[in-house]
Amino acid sequence: MSVAEAPRYASSWLDLREPADAAARATELVDELPTVPDQVILDIGCGTGSMARWLAPRLGGRQHWIMQDHDADLLDFAAASMIGTGAAITVETRQGDITALTAADLDGVSLVTASALLDLLDTDDAGRLAEACVESGTPALLTLSVAGRAELTPAEPLDGPLNSAFNDHLRHHVAGRTLLGADAADAVAAAFTERGATVKAVPSLWRLGSDHRELIAEWLRGWVTAASTRLGRDAAVEHEIDEYLRRRLAQAEAGELTVTVHHTDLLARPGDPR
């Protein structure tokens, strides 16, 4: 994926979702990371740096973070947000293509991390990521990959069709490429496994309720809007979707809607015995 093709996410959305992301990530995978005295962590597609802010306190010890993203503004925010996280933590930023890693790029890197990124890859991107990590012997902790399932309570008949349409939207074509979307975690796990790495997958769920009204509302708007692009332009269908969104937003505002959004966390360890 070139820098020009990579989507730009508003920092307000990234900030809004950060607490839900932190609560969802699989902490047990952190416990399985190799112990390294002086760690160098490359965070690809770092956004505002939420992954680093979550993981750094759990790793402990001396850490040097390389924050990589295509968006210069997000990089500036991410670097600034790490100030004060610990005297033993240093940060540098790297702007560029987030999917063109090679083993040479990982020289001296002890861990690759990413969060909510894999659905933006295609099959070739997944292979390059796995190849770079395996060839360099670098483990990868890849969190919050969309798993293609959202559950809303109370349920409505339109939930299922919207979920399917959203998943179809995630697999859209960009410049001749088909993005992995909700198949990303399985595809990336397979790419690592085929190259001899050991991969562990753990569910990581957003569990959103009355304490997450603003996040639910923003997620709903994005989810429904994306799904609606795959459901045609029939006026009756558009009206039904509009009414659905209106009801759901009202339920969220009243604290009457709960949403579970399924994700998957992966830990890939090159060279481990199967």
Explain how this protein is built.
There is one protein chain. The protein has a seven-stranded mixed beta sheet. A two-stranded antiparallel sheet has the order 6-7. It has helices at residues 11-24, 27-31, 50-59, 72-81, 123-136, 159-170, 184-194, 213-228, 235-253, and strands spanning 38-44, 62-69, 89-95, 111-115, 140-153, 173-174, 177-178, 198-208, 258-269. The protein is 41% helix and 25% strand. It has nine helices and nine strands. The chain is an alpha/beta fold and 274 residues long. The protein has a single domain (11-269), classed as Rossmann fold (3-Layer(aba) Sandwich).
**Separate helix tally:** 9
**Mean pLDDT over all positions:** 91
Q: Give the strand order of the largest sheet, numbering strands 1, 2, ... along the chain.
A: 3-2-1-4-5-9-8
Would you list the SSEs in sequence order as H and E?
A: HHEHEHEEHEHEEHEHHE
Q: Report the top-level CATH class.
A: Alpha Beta
Strand content: 15-25%
Helix share, percent: 40-55%
Overall number of structural domains: 1
Give start-end ranges of low-pLDDT stretches.
Answer: 1-8
In whole angstroms, how far apart are the ends?
31 Å
Task: Give me the CATH architecture, please.
Answer: 3-Layer(aba) Sandwich
CATH topology: the name is: Rossmann fold
How many beta-strand segments?
9
Write a compact overview of the structure shown:
By secondary structure, the protein is an alpha/beta fold. It has one domain: Rossmann fold (3-Layer(aba) Sandwich).
